[in-house]
Amino acid sequence: MFRPPTVRHRLVTPLFFAKSSTFASTSVCAVADFPQSDTVSQILGHFNSFPLPYSPKLLFSSLRKNIWFKNEVLKLRPSEIDTIIEKLDPENAIGFFFLLQNQFGVKHTRNLQFVIAHILAEKKRFRALRCHLQRVLQDEGCGSAPSFCELLFKSFKGWDSNHVVWDMLAFVYCRAGMVHDALLVLSNMKDLYIRPSIMTYNSLLHNLRHTDIMWDVYSDIEANGICPTEYTNSIFLDGLCRQSLIHEAIAFLREIEEKQAEPCVVWFNTLMSGFCRMGFVDIAKSFFCMMFKYGLIPDAYSYNTLIHGLCISGSLEEALDFTNDMVKQGLEPDEVTYNILAKGFRLLGMMDGTWEVTERMLHREPNPDLLTYTILICGHCQTGNVEEGFRLREEMLSKGFQLNVISYRVLLGSLCKSGRINEALSLLSEVENVGLKPDRFMWEAEELYKQLLGKGIAPTIITFNSLINGSCKAGKLADARKWLDGIKMHNLVPSVVTYTTLMNAFCEAGNLEATVELLEEMEASGLEPNQVTYSVVMKGLCKQGKLEESVAVLKGMLAKGLSPDQASYNALIQCFCEARDLNRAFQLHDEMIKLNIHPNHGTYTILIHGLSVYGDLGDAERLFSFLQDQHIKFSKVVYTTLIKANCAKGDVQKAMVLFCQMAETGFEISVKDYSAVVNRLCKRSLLKDAIDFFRMMLVGGIAPDKQICSVMFDSINRGSDFSLKFQFYVLMIKCGFDPG
Question: Which of 20, 121, 425, 633 is the most buried (most CB within 10 A)?
Fold first, then answer.
C-alpha cells in the first residue's frame, strides 16, 4: 500500500529505518480470541508489512495520505477499532487512536478513550495525557464526572498507572473550571485510597481561593501528608488577600515561616498585589522593604505591582523613582511597566495638554532618556494621538536613541488600528532592519494581513514569507505551515526561500520527517533546492547522528554543481568528531581545501576541540602550533579548550602558558575562565596550583565570585595541608568573604 521510493527519494527514505527494541506481544487488555474481518486483518497488516521496523511517524504519515486506508477505517465498527488497538503495541496503538480521531474525525468510545489514557500514563507521557483528557472533557462538558468515575471504577480498577489517570482527570477538571466535577473525582479517589498530587491540589485551591472552601482544601493537603509548595502557599495568601482577610494573611505568612523555611519573593509579591488592590499602598511598600531584610531581591513583578499601586493612588513621582530604582538594580522595565506608567499619566490628564507637570516629572534630567520617551509614546498612542507618538520617535532617532521593542509594538498597533497599512508595513521593515526579532511583532504582521484582505489588496509572496519567518522564529510551526497553504489559496507560488525557511524551522525542532516532506513537496512543484536548502537538510541529519546520509547529501550537492559552504562542512566535521571518527573529520577538512573552500577559524576550533576531547591532546597541540605558525587567528574557545584539557591531564605548566597567551592575545578574561581552570585543578587535588591561579586572578584585578571560593574552600578543607588552608583563608578575607 506504500509508494516505493523513487530515485529522488532513495537518499532520504532509508534514514527512517532504524533498529528499535521489539515490544512485548501482550495486548493492551486481556481479551478472548475471536475471528476478525478481512478489513481488520488488512489494517493490522500495515503494521507488519516490512521486514525492518518502520518509523511510527513515517508510517502514520503515509497512512494519513492513503485513500483506501481512510475509506476502510471509516467503515469500521467501534468493536473492530477496539480489536485493532488491542492487538497493536503501545506506540502504534496511541498513533492509530489519534490518527483516527484527529485526521479522520472518528469519535471513539469512552472505554477506548480511557484505555489510551492508561497507556499514556504508563509510558509517562503526562503532557499528552493531559491534552487527551482535556479534549475528552471538552466533548463531554460539565456534569460528566459521575459517569467517568463509574467507568474507571468498574473497568480499570487494578490497571497499572490507574492512580495517575484518576489524578490527571481531577487536575483537568480543575483547570477547566469544572470545580464540582473535580470535587466528585477527588471524593472517589479518597474512597480508593488514591492520594492527589500537589499539582491537582494547587489547581483546585486556585479555583476556590475566593471562597471559604480553600481552608478545607489546605487542611486536606496537610492531612494527606503532602508538603505545600511555594506556589501552594502563594495561592492561599492570594485567596486571603482577595477576601480582605489582612490579619489572617500576615498571620499565615508568619506561621509558614516558622513551620517551613525563609519566605520567598513570590509570597511577598502576592501580599503586595493584594494590599495594592485594596488601596493599602503604604503596607505594600512595607512588604517591599521587608524583602531586603530577608535577603531577597525583588523581581520585575515586585516593581510592577508597586508601581501600579502608586500610579492608581496618584503618586506618579514616587512611581517614577521606583522605575529608576528598578533600572539601577539591573531589571529592565518591560511592556507592563511602561503601560502602567502611561495609564497613570493619562489618568491625571497629563497626556491632554498639561505639559508643565509632565515635563517637571519626566524631564528632570537635562535630556530625556529612553524610559521617558517610551512612557510618552505609550501614553500618546493609548489616547489615539499617533502623530505625537511618531514626532517623539523622530526626536529619539535624531538624538541617537534606538527605539525598543515596546515602542515599536505600540506604534505598529496604533497604525494597524487606524488602518494606515502602508506606514505600518514601512515600520515593520524598519523593525527587521534594526535587528529586532520579528517574532515579537507577529501579531502586528497578522493584523496587517487582515487589513490587506479587508481593503481588497492582494498579499504578495513577500507578505507570506514574512509571516512564515515570524511564525517559525516564534516556534509556531503549525501556523507557519498554515501560511504555506495560504500561499496556494491566493494562487501564489511558494519560493525556494519559503520552503527553506520552513525546513530550517522543522530541523531546529528535530522534526526530520516534516523536513523531508517539504523537500519532496518542493521538488514536486518544480523548484530546485539551492545550497542553503541542502545545508538545512544536512544540519537536520547531523543533529540526529545520521552521518553517512549527511555525506550522501553533500555528494548530491556536488554532483548537481552546487558548492557547499564552510558552515555545511563545519557541521559535518563536528558530527564526525563527536562520533570519535577523527579520520573522517580530517578527510572532510582536506576535501574543503581541494574544492577551494577555505577552512575558517570555526573549522579549526572544531578540530582542535575534537582532538582534545575525543582524540590525542598531543595532536591537538601540534595542530595548534602549526596553525599559529601559519598566522591563523583563533577564537577564545580554542584556548579554553586546550587549557581545560591540560588541567584535566595534570599538566598545569602548559595550562598556565596557554592562559597567559590567551590574555596576551587580547581576549577578555572573566571569572568564569578562572573558575573552569580552578574546578579542574581541585578535582585532581592540585590545590597549590589552584591557589596560584586564584592569586593570578586577584593580581589581574578580577574579583572572585562565591562559586569559585566555595569550590576551593571545600577542596582545601578536605585536604590536610594547613599552610594551604592558611594561605587561602588570607586570600578570602582580602576579597571580603568570610572563611567560616
Answer: 121
Per-residue HEC secondary structure of 508-537 comes to HCCCHHHHHHHHHHHHHCCCCCCHHHHHHH
181-191, pLDDT tens digit by residue? Answer: 999 999 999 99
Question: What are the cell numbers at 122?
Answer: 504508563
At 617 the pLDDT is: 85
At 446, is the pLDDT very low, low, confident or very high (cuts 50, 70, 90)? low
Cell, residue 458: 492582494
- 617 vs 624: CA distance, rounded Å: 10
Residues 6+ apart with CB under 8 A from 629: none
Question: What distance in Å separates the CA atoms of residue 119 and residue 159, rounded to the nearest whole number?
Answer: 10
Residue among 312, 250, 321 nearest 278 (CA): 312
Mean pLDDT score of the chain: 79
Give 3-state DSSP helix, strand, coil % of the chain, rounded to 5. Answer: 70, 0, 30
Counts for the chain of helices (H) and strands (E), in that order: 41, 0
Q: With bands split at pLDDT 50, 70 and 90, how would you rate the model's confidence at 31?
A: very low
User: Could you tell me the sign of the dihedral formed by the alpha carbons of 216, 221, 227, 233, in that order?
Assistant: negative
Residue 634: strand, helix, or coil: coil
Q: Distances in Å between the alpha carbon of 351 and those of 359, 396, 681?
A: 11, 18, 62
Sequence-ordered list of residues with C-beta below 8 angstroms from that of 231, at least 6 positions apart, any chain: 202, 266
Q: What DSSP state is assigned to residue 179?
A: H
Total length of the chain? 740
Q: Which helix (H) or strand (E) holds 506?
A: helix 496-508
234 pLDDT tier (thresholds 50, 70, 90): confident
d(CA 547, CA 576): 7
The answer to whether 674 and 697 are in contact (CB under 8 A) is yes
The C-alpha cell that represents 532 in the structure block: 542553503
Residue 15 sits at the vertex; the CA angle it makes with 9 and 17, to the nearest 5 degrees, is: 110
> Which residue is associated with the grid cell 489519534?
98
**pLDDT digits 0-9 by tens, 269-298:** 988 988 888 888 888 898 888 888 878 889
pLDDT score for 195:
92
Q: Which three cell numbers stand for residue 201?
A: 491540589
Helix (H, G, I), strand (E, B) or coil at 22: coil
DSSP secondary structure, 455-505, as one string: TTPPP-HHHHHHHHHHHHHTT-HHHHHHHHHHHHHTT----HHHHHHHHHH
16 pLDDT higher than 90: no
Q: Provide the residue type at 95 as one letter.
A: G
On the question of pLDDT at 95 being above 50, the answer is yes
**At residue 413, does pLDDT exceed 60?**
yes
Compute the distance between CA of residue 706 and CA of residue 687 in angstroms, rounded to an integer. Answer: 18
The 10 Å Cβ neighbour count of residue 78 is 13
d(CA 505, CA 470) in angstroms, rounded, equals 11
Task: Show Cβ contacts of residue 650 under 8 Å, excluding neighbours closer than 6 positions.
Answer: 684, 686
Q: Give the whole-angstrom CA distance, residue 227 versus residue 205.
A: 14
Q: Which residue has the cell 502586528?
A: 444
Sign of the CA dihedral with 284 first, then 288, 294, and 299 last: positive
Neighbours of 273 (CB within 10 A): 23
According to DSSP, residue 156 is labeled S
